[in-house]
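Help needed: design a sequence for this.
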């Protein structure tokens, strides 16, 4: 078996704001496997300043993984424990190589085009008018669950945006999730969560920054509506440490991004613990290209979680790969009649 890797720069159609800054491009890496005339592809997507493997030796570790590909998927996963995005890329590449086609990793009614999944419509941070236009667009597109990133503009204006939605749609028609990306200070978080609760929200992701377990536990205990952990899960590697974190904080939900928590295997460890502790969960992509998004979507369908998933990122880029994935009326689907952009695995 031969393994190689390629860097690829994804370019945003519009600058996309988060509480950590505005993104105009995102780098990603592809691992290509070749064996007996077949090819497999896996995506290693890192998010600068957020991924635990955003390290100076990242490319060295990619090279090491390719040189040691003979170790196989499981041993490589264990050897790459501090590099979750490479773990994910390796898992994906092996599944791609073994599949009937490089892009059919988890055959199901989803890949046959027979079933779709509910997803949330993502509204990016920005000026009030920009966020309002995105909300109106998502509602017009038929989304029944909207996720707003908050924490970048004036909080009163953000409350105004929520008021705007609720003036037109109650919680039985539109589910609203908000994601603070850790933007609230610990001394104001509970007060702000109480203000948000007036708008009948489904949940809030990561109201305070990670690594404040005592404060987060108190918030989860006192909150008037559910709190979901996101960034809090990043960099927690062993099953023992995962259990300790969940038992201490007792969140209502956890959100799993395979690129950030060790791929399918790392995510499954979290899911198993969450279900044992009666904690809800859902899956979210992390700005991967359509190659990574495709793998996550197929795997997510196999889990049969009825909640809306966070998988609607494929249309953000000007230079994404044409794929059979599509979004229709708040659902993600797969059209097996469409072919993938062949450049997606050629890289010549």
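Sure. Designed sequence:
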């Amino acid at each position: 078996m031969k393994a190689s890797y390629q860097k690829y720069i994804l370019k945003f159609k519009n600058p996309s704001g988060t509480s950590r800054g505005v993104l105009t491009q995102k780098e990603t890496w592809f691992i290509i496997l070749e064996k007996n005339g077949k090819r497999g592809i896996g995506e290693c997507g890192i998010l600068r300043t957020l991924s635990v493997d955003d390290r100076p030796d990242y490319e060295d570790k990619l090279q090491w993984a390719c040189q040691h590909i003979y170790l196989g998927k499981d041993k490589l996963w264990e050897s790459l424990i501090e590099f979750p995005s490479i773990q994910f890329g390796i898992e994906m590449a092996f599944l791609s190589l073994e599949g009937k086609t490089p892009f059919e990793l988890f055959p199901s009614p989803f890949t046959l085009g027979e079933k779709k999944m509910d997803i949330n419509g993502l509204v990016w941070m920005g000026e009030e008018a920009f966020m309002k236009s995105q909300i109106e667009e998502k509602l017009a597109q038929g989304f029944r669950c909207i996720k707003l990133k908050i924490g970048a503009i004036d909080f009163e204006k953000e409350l105004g945006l929520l008021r705007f939605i609720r003036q037109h749609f109650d919680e039985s028609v539109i589910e609203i999730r908000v994601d603070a990306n850790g933007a609230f200070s610990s001394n104001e978080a509970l007060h702000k969560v109480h203000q948000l609760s007036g708008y009948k929200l489904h949940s809030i992701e990561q109201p305070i920054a990670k690594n404040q377990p005592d404060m987060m536990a108190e918030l989860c205990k006192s909150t008037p509506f559910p709190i979901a952990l996101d960034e809090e899960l990043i960099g927690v590697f062993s099953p023992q440490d995962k259990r300790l974190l969940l038992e201490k904080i007792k969140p209502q939900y956890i959100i799993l991004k395979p690129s950030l928590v060790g791929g399918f295997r790392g995510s499954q460890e979290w899911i198993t613990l969450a279900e044992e502790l009666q904690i809800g969960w859902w899956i979210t992509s992390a700005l991967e290209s359509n190659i990574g998004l495709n793998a996550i979507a197929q795997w997510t369908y196999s889990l049969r979680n009825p909640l809306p998933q966070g998988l609607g990122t494929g249309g953000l880029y000007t230079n994404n790969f044409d794929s059979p994935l599509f979004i229709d009326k708040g659902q993600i689907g797969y059209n097996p009649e469409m072919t993938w952009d062949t450049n997606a695995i050629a890289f010549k």
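DSSP finds twelve helices and 13 strands in the chain.
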